[in-house]
Amino acid sequence: MSRLLSFYKTSIGKKVVMAVTGIALLGFVMGHLLGNLQVYLGPEKLNAYAQLLHDNAGLLWVARIGLLVALILHVHAAVRLTQQRRRCRPVSYQKPGHVQADYASRTMMWSGPLILAFVLYHLAHLTFGTVHHDFEAKDVYHNVVAGFQVPWVAGLYILAMVGLGFHLYHGIWSFFQTLGLNHPRWNALRRYLSIALALGIVVGNVSIPLAVLTGLVS
Amino acid sequence: MKIKLNVWRQPSSEASGRFEPHTVENVSQHMSFLEMLDVLNEQLVLEGKDPVAFDHDCREGICGSCGFTINGIAHGPEAGTTVCQLHMRKFKDGDELWLEPWRAAAFPVLRDLIVDRTGFDSIVEAGGYISVRTGSAPDANSIPISKESSDSAFDAAACIGCGACVAACPNASAMLFTSAKASHLGLLPQGQPERWRRTQSMVEVMEEIGFGHCTNHRECEAVCPKEISVDFIARLNRDYIQASLGRGSK
To answer: How high is the ipTM of this complex?
Structure first.
């Protein structure tokens, strides 16, 4: 335990925690997307899936607590590393420049908090229903369709998913780099995988509010 | 060519600095960037002013002494080049350039464009060596080393310790430097006995001195005059995880 704690005190340790918790959260996002896509199978299928999750309350809470722990560690490491950055570069360049750092990598500390804010809104909107104008506790399908029929709500979800896409594009590639999972034969694949997963998650999730807005799902 | 310069002037570590505008006329496109600064300094000396202080030694791109940022890019716009090997033909007549020293807490500015890079020496002192009496040079090929390992070790050993990686990193991280120094020994048979201890010590000293963490922007690789790959950073991460949590940990 003390070995783990002193490992976490180093920046490589924090990055490893960031990578591992990030992958746990990515696993949830992918599972969540697969659940979401059942909206295309109609109200009975989606509501039955929601009921199935609630019938296994024990497992559901294990998953929820695991995700919460992963999220807290992910955010804690991010905050501490940002503080470290300010200590290590106290005077910034008057004329800053960059060569190959992409938009996604330069905005991780913006996309991260925005995703967190979205998660809180999303919980209040579709889990607790406190900010939903027409919430029915047992009717997930109705809540999704009625929620996304409000254009600004659908727009907010779409924007948040694009932000998540950027975060994942850099995060997934970084996962391999931080854990030292590299090999000349596979290095290019790491970039393709991060693009494929980020794009898949964005397209899959964005398709739902779009389908509601265009009347494909009603 | 006529070049407009805004040069960072700072009399000492404690003093605050500012940009000072200068114009250098009749710049030949065959001059190196440092030769252009030599012309500026001759001009300043004739005018009775302080010349601009900048580090330099071999002017062949292999010693690692020179370096500053040009318009925010370490060693300027040409990839794989130090400022002494950067030629004025890469610029256009009338260009306006901003010259700044490396900016990092671990690299305090000594004067103008010169920073103190003692931090790099401390990282190497922490483990960038092999503790054996070497005696006379061994026979060539007496220790078999695979082509892949020797090539890769050589790529890492190309590091000249100029500090551009730290300068370019948004977190002022020395991971590319440290990983290159740890890898060129860690890839060879002679480096194996001390591999895990070396990795741990070098990373610990790197952090103590006040270098930052790696967030995988890959800016270091882009400005490195020796084009050292961030693959070595992945290797250092892997070795550090193993050294701290697995075999060889203290």
So the answer is: 0.93
